[in-house]
Amino acid sequence: MDPLVTPAWLAARLENPNTIILDATLPNVGVTPAIDTHARYLANHIPGAIFFDIEELSDHSTPLPHMLPTAEAFSRSMSTLGVADNATIVVYEQEGVFSAPRAWWMLRTLGAQKVYLLDGGLRAWTEANLPTESGPVLRVQSTFRANRHHEAVKDLTQLKEKITARQQILDARSAGRFNGTAPEPRPGLSSGHMPGAISVPFTELVEDGRLKPADKLQQLFAAKKIDLHQPITTTCGSGVTAAVIALGLELAGAKDVSLYDGSWAEYAQRPESFIEKTI
């Protein structure tokens, strides 16, 4: 299943009640003043789209940001929003590629059967002269039975096992943060990287506001000596842009991809964690 769909593909299914569209735009960390992405959604969105608030839908029992919720909590949230687990779900964001892949990954990891990402997002939709609307969207409550795919998500213990085994770990943060030459946006965290990790800034996977085509992604991963036939774990600052790499890896043909959910926000705050710097 190709995870990307075009505006024309979505437009042809816009009136289908089994098609559910989600705006999953998060404001970028460290950008001030913060952008109110929900207000932007209310002002302009694809007809029928619901706002998928990644922050609100994450696990708030932990101080770590954007952690995957329990299957039970996600079932309740999605059912209330009117999102069924067997629906055709299309996720997009308002500009560029940043947070929509995280929503795509959350939904897939928690049991949605058909999840796609709109290639080019809202910008591509409007550039195709397709209609938009404003205001909130409410759907009738539905049934979402979440089923967590445990192999898709890794915790700190599993991550450390992968470090010890020298398995491939791809870090989506900027090169400066990875090398330790730029600060982390979250206070109190040292920059740097996990032993053996490979720097793959998520921005390198993006071209003209959308993910690069599969052949260019394959070339990018090959240039970094990443073996798509071996297990790969993605990480970043808080688990959001790690999903950009996970999506890029799927497009490139990788089959064994997992995401370290705690990411740098968890790893760097643990006193026993070894942090490497390239200075």
From TrEMBL:
Q: Which InterPro entries match?
A: Rhodanese-like_dom, Rhodanese-like_dom_sf, Thiosulphate_STrfase_CS, TST/MPST-like
Fetch the Pfam families from UniProt: Rhodanese (PF00581)
Please tell me whether the keyword Transferase is annotated for this protein: yes
**Database matches in PROSITE patterns:** RHODANESE_1, RHODANESE_2, RHODANESE_3
Segment forming the signal sequence: none
| Major localization listed first in the record, in broad terms | cytoplasm
| This protein's UniProt keywords | Cytoplasm, Pyruvate, Repeat, Transferase
User: GO CC annotations?
Assistant: cytoplasm
Where does this protein reside within or beyond the cell?
A: Cytoplasm
Q: Which reaction does it catalyse?
A: 2-oxo-3-sulfanylpropanoate + [thioredoxin]-dithiol = [thioredoxin]-disulfide + hydrogen sulfide + pyruvate + H(+)
Q: What GO molecular-function term can you cite, just one?
A: thiosulfate-cyanide sulfurtransferase activity
- Coiled-coil residues: none
Give start and end of each Rhodanese domain: 36-134, 163-276
Q: Which NCBIfam families match?
A: PRK11493.1
Q: In its UniProt entry, what is this protein called? A: Sulfurtransferase
Organism of origin is Tunturiibacter lichenicola
